[in-house]
Specification:
alpha/beta, Cobalt-precorrin-4 Transmethylase, domain 1, 4 strands, globular
């Protein structure tokens, strides 16, 4: 069974100015990038770095609670890790501040659940 990996990055609020060199590198070299960013400009920037980008925006809305949305994001990201892919999860802003899915992905990937 292949062993996948997970890197979580933040794109900043103003992606062109705040996305770090390390975050860009992780986006570029991932097998798949899952993104939750604030606008089409940020989405386009990420897609310019990696052709295999999947937006998780569609998981919001409907009758789904915020917790259900976040759990769906976490499971989508971790399914790719479990399948052996090198995964990058990119969130707008700082991935450690008010981003439940980033913390939960890391916790579950480390087996701390």
């Amino acid at each position: 069974m292949a062993r996948g990996s997970l890197v979580v990055v933040g794109t900043g609020i103003k992606i062109a100015n705040q996305c770090t060199i390390e975050a860009r590198y992780q986006i570029e070299t991932a097998d798949i990038v899952f993104e939750v960013v604030g606008d089409q400009l940020a989405r386009g920037f990420i897609q310019s770095l990696n052709a295999n980008v999947v937006s998780l925006q569609h998981l919001y809305g409907g009758d789904r609670s915020r917790r259900e949305t976040y759990d769906a994001m976490v499971e989508t990201i971790l399914d790719a890790v479990r399948s052996g892919k090198r995964v990058c999860a990119a969130f707008y802003g700082h991935p450690g501040v008010y981003v439940f899915p980033s913390h939960e992905c890391v916790k579950r990937a480390r087996g701390r659940v």
